[in-house]
Amino acid sequence: MTGLALLGLGLAAVVLLLVMVIWLRVPAFVALLVVALATAVLSGIPLSESVGVVTGGIGNTLGSVTVVVGLGAMLGRIIEASGGADALARYFTGKLSARHVVAAIVAAAFILGIPVFFDVGFIILAPIVFGFARTAGINPLKIGLPVAGTLLTVHVTLPPHPGPVAAAEIVGAEIGTMLASGLPLAAITVVIGYFAAKLFNVDRMVLGDSPATETPEAVTNPPSAWTVIGVILLPIVQILVGTAGSLVTVEGSTAHEIIAFVGAAPVALLTAVIIAWIVIGRQQGWSLSRGSSLIDSALPAVAIVIFVTGAGGAFAGVLVKSGIGQVLSDLLVDTNMPLILTAYLMALALRASQGSATVSMLTTAGLLATPIVDAGIDGVHAALIALVIGFGSLGLSHVNDSGFWIVTRYQGLTVKQGLQTWTLLSTVFSLVGFILSWGVYAVI
Fold it and tell me: Nearest 5 degrees, angle CA 183-CA 185-CA 188?
């Protein structure tokens, strides 16, 4: 199949998927699998391999998502059932106005997102976001959307996240230089994105059943706000220690392996669940069977998130295997645009075509590494190009992105509502970051 035919197939696949989910009301999990299989066959992938490509995409996605979503849901369930989320919200809302509370949560998300992956951070903060929304009497999307945008901005632009680190190394930029330039640019992007999110008219949206719309039972003796903060910070600090320790220890050494193990997201979240179960369960007077059944009850609520996320990974895997993303990147390389503009558009196109922000960053950086060297780009400008690649990988989060399903399903959004809010907001964050970075690139 020719390059243009592949691009047309990719576009048709996305359109068909949206028609099936939005207008024909086909369940997202079923629609994603149908479109993924059809795209695999029509793109020329042999029939004998098509099913393997689809199931492989599911496995690759769920390998990183299932444990994180499951344990994160359990932690959130403990905090919520004990009344901890509402207690924390009442504590801070009593000290700050609702407007300042939202800004404070977004600022906290920026800081906490530096050592923590996007999906982990969102799932950890979700019960707190929903608790604040209930206490302040506001739509949870008014907090959840800018928090998600903030976490994703940090994830694609700032070391020690793997995408920015790898992109910087590939294009020949120093990690320290990228961090020094990325911190202020990402912070300004988040501030502008925060105000942009205020323009979204989310009050008219009717949210479906989700953790955002659940009304927890009233609790007469909730844990203290600081107990809840401690439980939330525990996995974040553990991950931060693991990340920092891995950078300062010798790879292959015993210390490096121990720190990497302890700081792994699944281990950190498992530790937090166990500690929360013991500390909060004892404070609440839960029996062992009560605590166990309560934790188990968290899984059915997020089952749809896990299944749909896996199906989204199947669709993304087919798009990668078919070569649609590669065709897009080759077309952009041949246009002879300014390098920084090419970097942004290529990363954005790859993000839209195959879903993964990290894959988009690595592919774009690899394709532009030689042109950057040939152009004699210095270290500072190379760092800004790497940063622009990250901002390009931030936008156009839609149905082939696992993060799209986590953000939308966790907040009770339909696919149409998700495209109107999360997809648009992620692209606003992306454009703002690119414009700011290009401006700095032009004046230094």
Answer: 105
Query: Is pLDDT of 370 > 80?
Result: no
Q: Six-digit token pair at 268?
A: 């950190």
CA dihedral 50, 163, 268, 279 (to 10 degrees): -110
The region of weakest confidence among 188-192, 346-350, 393-397 is 346-350
Share of the chain above pLDDT 70, in %: 91
Res. 186 pLDDT band, cuts 50 70 90: very high
Using alpha carbons, select from 32, 26, 203, 239 the residue that is nearest to residue 123.
239
Q: Would you state the structure tokens that stand for residue 248, as one six-digit string?
A: 């300062």
Q: Identify whether the C-beta of residue 73 lies closer than 8 Å to the C-beta of residue 301.
A: yes
* Radius of gyration over every alpha carbon of the chain, rounded to an integer in angstroms: 22
Nearest residue to 306 (alpha-carbon basis) of 411, 422, 402, 414? 402
- Residue length of the chain: 444
CB atoms within 10 A of CB 207: 16
Percent helix, percent strand, percent coil in the chain, to nearest 5: 80, 0, 20
The conformational region for residue 252 under phi > 0 = left, psi -120 to 50 = alpha, else beta, is left
Q: What pLDDT does residue 430 have? A: 96
Query: Which two tokens mark 214?
Result: 């659940």
What lies within 8 Å, CB to CB, of 203 at 6+ separation is 139
Instruction: Using alpha carbons only, give the angle 193, 411, 293 rounded to the nearest 5 degrees.
Output: 140
* φ and ψ of 152, to 5 deg: -70, -35
- Rounded-to-integer distance, Cα 102 and Cα 147, Å: 9
Place of tokens 């206490």: 135
Q: Which of 185, 130, 195, 128 is nearest to 154 (CA)?
A: 185
Helices 402-410 and 118-136: crossing angle in degrees, nearest 10, is 20
- Cα 224 from Cα 411, distance rounded (Å): 26
Describe the crossing of helices 141-157 and 379-392 by its angle, rounded to 10 degrees: 140
Is the pTM value of this prediction over 0.90? no
